[in-house]
Amino acid sequence: MIDVPMLLPAILALHAVVAVLLPPLVRRLGPRAFLAAGVPPAVSAVWALSQAPAIVAGHPATAELAWAPALGIGLNFRVDALSLAMIVLVSGIGAVIFCYCAAYFHQGERGLGRLAAVLVLFSGAMLGVVTTDNLFALYVFWELTSVTSFLLVGHDDRKEHARRAATQALVTTAGTGLLMLIGFVMLGHAAGDYSVSGLVADPPDGGPWLTVALVLVLAGAFGKSAQVPLHYWLPGAMVAPTPVSAYLHAAAMVKGGVYLVARLAPGFADAELWRWLVLGFGLATMLVGGWRALRQDDLKLLLAYGTVSQLGFLVLLGGTGTQVAGVAMIAMLLAHGFFKSALFLTVGIIDHQTGTRSISRLTGLGRRMPVLAVAATLAAASMAGLPPLIGFAGKEAALEAFVPGAAPAPGPQGAAVMLTGLVLGSILTFAYSARFVWGAFADKTTVSERGFRPPSAAFAAAPVVLTAVSLGLGLAPALADPLAQAYAHDLPVGHHAYHLSLWHGITLPLLLTGLVIAAGALMFLRRRAVSRLQNRMPRWPDAEYGYHLFVHGVYTVALSVTRRTQSGSLPVYLGIILATMLVLPGARLAAGLITGEIAVPGVEGAFRLWDSPLELLVAAVVVVTAVATVREHRRFPALILLSVLGFGIAGMFVLHGAPDLALTLVLVETLTTIILVFVLRRLPTTFSVRPNGWAKRLTVLLCAAAGTFISLALWVMTAARTDAPISQGYTDRADEAGGDNLVNIILADFRALDTLGEIVVLATAAVAVASLVLLNRRSRVVDEPAAEVSVEAEEQAQLAAAEQEHADAAHAQAEPALGQGAEPARAAGAEARDAEMTTAPPETRDSGGERGPDRSGGARPADDDHEGSDDDRR
User: Fold this and answer.
1) Over 70: is that where the pLDDT of 183 sits?
2) Where does the pLDDT of residue 854 fall: very low under 50, low under 70, confident under 90, or very high at 90 and above?
3) Which residue, of 36, 371, 556, 614, has the fewest CB within 10 Å?
């Protein structure tokens, strides 16, 4: 094991620092700032590759950043073979995509600095997901990827469908992430260890709680990796700019669920429920995604549904838990990252140059962009599983993993079912891969060519480089095999250990590959018949419809609960709180005292009325002011009495030796009184007097019971102490902490987490108040122009009425002149026409006298973000 104490945390911190610096840098350099944004992922990839020989040899790189050592809480990092493969995708491909962004985006594009910063933050969060060795840290990084992806998908917040898709992705991934957190807590509690490596090395024993925990963890993984029926959010997220889609939905974010399944599989793949959940949902996702991809006209949506299909394939392989499946998973993980990101970037170039990514509008691109066409064809061939690319080697290993009898699990019947499903899914993959190449680059006689400029060499370099890596790994699979073996060496082996190679002889997987190619080619050639078949098939329930039903149901329940509980009456709210307190802890205290389970404190030595006679005086002041406040019907005197009551409590603190606490209370009471004085100026002078009745009696009874319960509980709890108060050691501990002010030491050191929580509460309240103020100001800004417009419209109406009266008078004067000659009549008619033209709306005063939306032809302004154009057409 290689210990790299601070290097990996420093690389994570570098992502945050660069993200902070990017917005001003983008304003200065424009899209070229993305080259600087690619530095953190490039550094991460170089560091990981430098550790690769030792990691492959079985010596993971580790780092630990202590946070609260006494509580066993720290940020632990561990990079093994699986993490290394993920870093190659997250950081290696990420660096290439950042360079691509420098050529993709335009100077002055809206929100470009924010996009660059959030993209770097996402890269750092994803790096944390794949390197942390602590379940809670994994969850934090996991949700950071959900939040940053929400901001990235909704980058163009002017478009409603972008905001809707971002919200949908966040609700799905973050919601299932909460279920995953519960599963993490249950797993860690059962195992007594919250480190990922320790949990896998020594998994807890089976039982119903372990089953529930595994289901919850898999729910989080399935949501992040878009498994059926949670796959709906991924195609919708294609409204994001293409580089974002290439990074999040090909190389990084969607691989998070695959990574989690593959990470936990060595420890839990033997669980029957785990295996069949992973295999069942993975295979269903592969088939559904492949079938849906065949009917897409948008190249980006075709790749999106293809990604759904491939993610099902990866989850299936990662969760099987055998040596052959583990080797196949690493090979396909790398292959998918390279070929899918290359294809997404290709679509970005096509859309950027031609203004569309619709198959029905593209033709002849293969002749006009030959280098890009060759690179995309090779990437699609890797996706289809053709030699000599890494996709072929991975697909062969996947088929081998489910040959009946070749692996220890699943059994022969289950293996046959899975093998059949994989063959069908591979046929669909070949068909939609061929459809992509044909749709993007083929000559179509029924489509007219579009005029465009070929992309620059720098712009087309990224997909070419990624395809070249895919081809290189395919020609030399031995480069990837050590990494695959390092991950799979602890997994159960079948008849023999499997190694990645282009040639294993004439085997059943090779024959099945030939069948896949033949059937896939036939399916593509008969694509019209396939399309008719899809149109004739009955409409299955849409998963997105289920999402909307769920959201609508939550909204309906929330409204119903709000109507029933939020009556607007503060006494009702306080009564519910007090009643809940009496029903739950109050009933438990009463039962304990009645049954003797809770001992009643003795009077001798444990009960005294006061420590100082002054306490009796202060207590009398408090009681008198409390009773007087209840009986007072005027608002201002009641406020003064409440303030006196608060100052009396502060005096009690002084008598008990806590002047600092008393000073704080005095300040709070004073500030509260001043604020309430300003509020009372706008309220009636007196309270509304409630008539005597059952409501008033119930209020008195409830308050008396609550006061009795609190007094009794404090008495019992004070007398129930068995150990010395912890505060007695604060003075000595303060000396050790190096402080002289005991109160400050308590707040900043001994109870630092409490103080942090209070700061968070205050900050949240401040943000809420600021939001309300800004919202109110925005409402005024929005309403004021509307009022101005209404006044202006009224003035225009009055002016039009006056002009109309003037025109009528002119007509009246012209009528008597008809018998005296034509010239006066013409003059009067001309005057009337001038008046009518004056009162006509501006848009009818064109030279042709026609009404139109705009003299410029009503052309829609060009949108800098090409990613939304086809989505609008769609």
Assistant:
1) yes
2) very low
3) 556
**Taking a C-beta distance cutoff of 8 angstroms, is the pair 77, 86 a contact?**
no
Q: Which residue has the higher pLDDT, 4 or 329?
A: 329
What whole-number distance in Å separates Cα of residue 481 and Cα of residue 333?
A: 13
3-state secondary structure of 455: coil
What mean pLDDT is predicted for residues 571-576?
86
Q: Is pLDDT of 861 > 70?
A: no
Distances (CA, A) of 18 to 38, 146, 166, 287: 9, 20, 24, 41
DSSP string, 396-408: HHHHHHTSTTTSS
Q: Give the helix/strand (H/E) hosting 38.
A: none
The CA-based dihedral angle spanning residues 31, 32, 37, 38, taken in that order and rounded to the nearest 10 degrees: 120
Q: 63 phi and psi, to 5 degrees?
A: -155, 150
- Cα 472 to Cα 330, 338, 387, distances in angstroms: 16, 11, 12
- Give pLDDT tens digits for 689-723: 666 777 778 888 898 999 999 988 888 887 777 77
What average pLDDT does range 157-168 have in this prediction?
90
Q: What angle do CA 404, 406, 408 make, to 5 degrees?
A: 95
Q: What is the pLDDT of residue 206?
A: 72
Label each residue of 217-266 as H, E or C.
HHHHHHHHCCCCCCCCHHHHHHHCCHHHHHHHHHHCCCHHHHHHHHHHHH
Non-local CB neighbours of 49 within 8 Å, separated by 6+ positions:
88
Would you state the pLDDT for residue 600?
77
Instruction: Measure the CA angle with vertex 517, ends 513 and 522; round to 5°.
Output: 150
Q: What is the pLDDT of residues 714-744, one digit of tens each?
A: 888 877 777 777 777 777 777 777 777 777 7
pLDDT of residue 524: 94
Give the helix/strand (H/E) hosting 853: none
d(CA 329, CA 263): 12
246 neighbors 97 (Cβ within 8 angstroms): yes
| Per-residue confidence band for 409, with pLDDT thresholds at 50, 70 and 90 | low
> pTM above the 0.85 mark?
no
219 Cβ contact list (under 8 Å, min separation 6): 176, 179, 180, 183
As given in the structure block, the two tokens for residue 129 are 């997901």
Question: Both tokens of residue 516?
Answer: 């896949």
Tell me which residue has tokens 């939040």: 147
DSSP string covering 815-827:
TGGGGT-HHHHHH
Q: What is the dihedral of CA 734, 739, 744, 749, to 10 degrees?
A: -60
What confidence category does residue 209 fall into, taking pLDDT thresholds of 50, 70 and 90? Answer: confident
73-79 and 61-68 strand pairing: antiparallel
Answer yes or no: are the C-beta atoms of 203 and 257 closer than 8 Å: no
User: Count of alpha carbons within 13 Å of 565, Cβ hemisphere only?
Assistant: 9
Give the residues across from 66 on adjacent strands.
74
Contacts of 184 (CB under 8 A, 6+ apart): 135, 136, 138, 139, 194, 217
Q: How many CA atoms lie within 13 A of 475 on its CB side?
A: 7
Q: How many CB atoms lie within 10 A of CB 461?
A: 18
Task: State mean pLDDT over 358-368.
Answer: 91
* 3-state secondary structure string across 531-554: HHHHHHCCCCCCHHHHHHHHHHHH
